[in-house]
Every structure is written in C-alpha cells, then in structure tokens.
Design brief:
With 255 residues, the protein is an alpha/beta fold. Helix content is 50%, strand content 15%. The chain binds nicotinamide-adenine-dinucleotide.
C-alpha cells in the first residue's frame, strides 16, 4: 500500500484496457488519478469505480488539448508526477493495403499523441525536478508484423522518442524519467476487436490465436506501478517487455 502515495498521475486511454487497469493499480497504491480519454461515455462510466479519480476529456492528437489538460492539472493539484501515454488504436493491414488515411490515423494517436504528452509533461515536471513518463509501446516495435504495418511503425517511433526524452532529461539534469513498456497480447477490448476481425476474414488464423499466450491487464499495470514509483529511480530510457518470452519464441518460422 502507498507505493505512489501523494503522487498525481495522468493516464491517457485510461477508460479501457491497460490504461484502466493501470489507473486502478495506481489509485490502490495512493495516487490521485486523472483518466484522460476521448471516450466520454466510457470514461464517465469507469471513473466512479476508482477511488479519488477524475475524468477529463482528451483527444491526444490535438496539442492544444494537451496544453489545456496539463496546465489544468498543475493549477489544480500543484504538480504532475506521472504521465502514462496509453491511448492507442490498431488497424490490421500490410504495407500493401495501408492507405495514407490509415497511416495518418494510427500515427496521429500513437506517435503524435505520445509526442505532445511527453513534450508538455516534461515542461512542467522539469520545473520541480522530478517525474515519471511511461509510454505504452508494444512488442510490435521489436518484431514488426505483416498485418500491423502502421501500428508497428508508430510503436517504433514511440520507443525512439522514449529514449530521446530520457537522455535529454538525464544529461540536462531535469530529474524526469521516461521508459517504455512493450506488452505482448493482453486481454483487453483492443485484442478482442482484432480477434473478431481476424475471425471474419481468416477463421483458421483466428483459431491459431487461441494458442498464443495472452496476459492480463494487471500484469502490465504492475509494471506501470513500478515505473511510476520511486522504486524505479535508477530506471530511465528502458524498454521493458511484458510477454512471457513470446517475442523470442514467435521468431520461429515454418520451412
Ligand atoms: N491489448 C494488447 O494486447 C496490447 C499489446 C501491446 C500494446 N498495447 C497498447 O496498449 C495501449 C492500450 O491498449 P488497450 O489494449 O488497453 O486498448 P483499448 O482499446 O482497450 O483502450 C484504448 C483506449 O484509448 C482511447 N483512445 C483512442 N484514441 C484516443 C485519442 N485520440 N485520445 C484519447 N484517447 C484515445 C480509447 O477510447 C480507449 O479507452 C495501446 O497503446 C495499445 O497499442 C496493447
């Protein structure tokens, strides 16, 4: 109990899946949690179940929205200790079928959203000389994947941004840490949605998905908690995998 007591956290994509599990875990350990999500309905539905949490409407693709949110949180709570950039969308398409619109849609949420979040969190965190930014990446940034072209590209950009922010902060003495988390398949609405699409288009591939390891959102939330807390004070610029070895073993290809 109390591993992040007194800290203030913003969690984008906090209305669902990994963001929601992380919001619950941080609140259980004493943080004041601001759930920031584009879904008003879902955000308002979950916020009441989390002690002391508040919901703020945020479209991560708009820098002006970010400036408004971060400044509002600092004005109200006097600080921002933790930012979890967790909002994300996925579309299934190879490079051959990725349209310009799909590319921009995925990168707007993942790449642009994380850029704006890191930029404005760093701006306020460096003033007090402390803070933890956590970027939700994916094993897709390590392995790629034939049918997740734009998503893997966006996650790879986030992985690079994370290290650049961490190094800038360390070399400038900002006191802000920035790390990325790379989950494998986790049981969330996003994964369910992907499975439904695969089922419609390729039932054999969907059946094969049943044999792949799937983790629980709390498995990721526990790592978020560690990175958010002062226990991880020496962890900066790290890319931390939560996949029970699947990044290694899925490298096996048929003859
Ligand atoms: N579930 C997995 O298997 C898995 C694996 C690796 C990485 N991830 C990553 O974890 C993160 C969370 O995924 P999830 O599985 O919990 O998905 P999810 O679909 O359950 O939740 C995503 C949340 O992001 C919000 N969101 C979408 N666009 C937004 C925007 N423009 N502004 C603000 N909020 C927005 C949605 O409303 C939703 O609440 C994503 O970045 C995803 O890429 C998920």
């Amino acid at each position: 109990m109390g591993r992040v007591a007194g800290k203030v956290a913003i969690i984008t994509g906090g209305a669902s899946g990994l963001g929601l599990a992380s919001a619950c875990r941080l609140a259980e350990e004493g943080a004041t949690v601001v759930i920031a999500d584009i879904s008003l309905e879902q955000g308002q539905a979950v916020v009441g179940e989390i002690a002391g949490a508040r919901f703020e409407h945020l479209d991560v693709t708009q820098e002006a929205n970010w400036i408004g949110l971060i400044d509002k949180v600092v004005a109200e709570f006097g600080r921002l200790d933790i930012l979890l950039n967790c909002a994300g969308i996925v579309r299934l398409a190879s490079i051959e079928d990725t349209s310009e619109a799909m590319w921009r849609e995925i990168n707007a949420v993942g790449t642009d959203g994380t850029f704006f979040g890191c930029k404005h969190a760093l701006r306020v965190m460096k003033v007090v000389g402390a803070g933890s930014i956590i970027n939700m990446c994916s094993t897709a940034s390590i392995q790629g994947g034939p049918m997740i072209f734009a998503y893997a590209a966006s996650k790879s950009a986030i992985r690079g941004m994370t290290k650049s922010v961490a190094v800038l902060s360390a070399q400038s003495g900002y006191g802000v840490r920035c790390n990325s988390i790379h989950p494998g398949n986790m049981r969330t609405p996003m994964l369910e949605g992907m499975k439904e699409i695969v089922m419609e288009n390729d039932p054999e591939a969907a059946a094969a998905m049943d044999n792949i390891w799937v983790g629980e959102p709390v498995d990721v939330a526990n790592l978020v908690l560690f990175l958010a807390s002062d226990e991880s004070v020496a962890v900066n610029g790290a890319a931390m995998v939560v996949d029970n070895t699947t990044t290694i073993t899925e490298g096996v290809v048929p003859h």
